[in-house]
Amino acid sequence: MNEIPEVIRTIPLNLYLYFSTALFCIGITGVLIRRNAIIIFMCIELMLNSVNLLLTAFSAYRSDPNGQIFVFFIMAVAAAEVAVGLAIIVMIYRNLRTTDINILNKLKW
Amino acid sequence: MTGNLFYFLAFLTLFAAIGVVVSKNPVYSILFMILTFFALTGHYILLNAQFLAAVNFIVYMGAIMVLFLFVIMFLNMREDTEQHKPLMSKIAVSIAGGVLFVIMIAALKDVSMMPVDTANFDSQIGMVENLGKVLFRDYLLPFELASVLFLAAMAGAVMLGKREPGEHNRF
Q1: A66 CA to chain B: closest CA distance, Å?
Q2: Which residues lie below 8 Å from residue B137, measured CB to CB, with a gap of 6+?
Q3: Which chain A residues have a beta carbon less than 8 Å from that of B2?
Q4: Domain A6-107 adopts which CATH fold?
Q5: What are the residue boundaries of the structural domains of chain A, listed by start?
């Protein structure tokens, strides 16, 4: 019942580190490369998820539940953020008929 | 066997994440995103974090992705609605992302992780029972604050989504 899971015995923690880094960099590239505000939002979700996975991996390897609690809170905050952000995007679309961030540059200095 | 499963899930996650970024059609991006979350749920199960796997499945794949898909369909986006950046800036951004990846890998290469503490290892920490105990004993205040956050988010979303009299809407 209390034996170490096989993935922890066979996969070193560094692999999770590299994998999460790759996922995070894909998310950053997506934020910079796309112009649709919704896709940018989804790429932010990708970055959040890469951090979630890394926290879970650390927590599981150290057998410390606090990391998984943090992941739970990150998920809760992400859900609230998505609800408000999508409402803002829908509002902007109703006024401007677009979600292209090159048109939404009103905050540009 | 588990090692192969890890490599397969990692490959699937990265493939789907790249698919999110490069898909022309936003609906395909959402579908790739769902595949990414599916693979991540597999990772959580592999790591023996059942509670997080269930929450990831329900919250992300169930709620958030339906919200995204609904908004995409509501706004009636097609492939031609997004103007694409010039090729030069795409290449520059890809190089920037790749360089960031290389730098982070180089920085993390020599990190030596502590070996797994086999004597005091508890494989049951990811179960609902143990996480619930920690959540309601040590993290009760943040948990309650999260509910206030959800209330504020709900009220904010309703307020933002409401039509205002001066708004010129043509739906």
Answers
A1: 8
A2: none
A3: 5-7, 10-11
A4: Helix Hairpins (1.10.287)
A5: 6-107
